[in-house]
Amino acid sequence: MAAPLNVLMVGTGEYTTGFVGGGASGSDKKVGVVGLTLFDLRRRGKVGKLGMVGVNGKKFPQIREHLHKNITQVYNNLDTSFDSFPDNDTVDPDAYKAAIDQLKPGDAITIFTPDPTHFPIALYAIERGLHVLITKPAGRATPADLDAKGLPTLENTIATTAILEAGRRSIDEGREIRIVVEDGVWKLV
């Protein structure tokens, strides 16, 4: 059996950590969705090393405290540790590059960032052979826009998988979706 893939969470806000504006979100995502899910998948041995990257590393001490209080202490000591980029004293809008460069082909990233950042982050990861899960449309681009920029061509050439958050429509329509990994490829089912 292959080693579990490592996953980098790109974006440290509401969907990933539930941490916004210096504290827990007031929404139904007060502990995040992405981080909680990946911490549990790591506990089950489905994923390996976890990382998180944002623009402002100065938020990581508060994010760690938030995750410890709202996940570790609530969910049976669930391990919420992760490698963080940039370091705790740095603000760097390109920190995702250094974080992605720590991964190996076949690992994965999730992108939960502002829409205009989706495409450059996804492209950087796909060029390095990583699997990519993007929230919402890739920067609100149409398939023709993405094709013109070369994303589908790169995806097929490098044999990685980019999944858009098709689940939003499915959930709105009352349908359930699952993401599964078959032979190292992420698929929506």
UniProtKB/TrEMBL annotation:
One of its GO terms (molecular function) is nucleotide binding. It comes from the Eukaryota. It holds the Pfam family GFO_IDH_MocA. Gene3D superfamilies: NAD(P)-binding Rossmann-like Domain (3.40.50.720). GO terms for biological process: NADPH regeneration. SUPFAM superfamilies: NAD(P)-binding Rossmann-fold domains. Residues 51-139 form the Gfo/Idh/MocA-like oxidoreductase N-terminal domain. GO terms for cellular component: cytoplasm. This is Gfo/Idh/MocA-like oxidoreductase N-terminal domain-containing protein. It comes from Trichoderma longibrachiatum ATCC 18648.
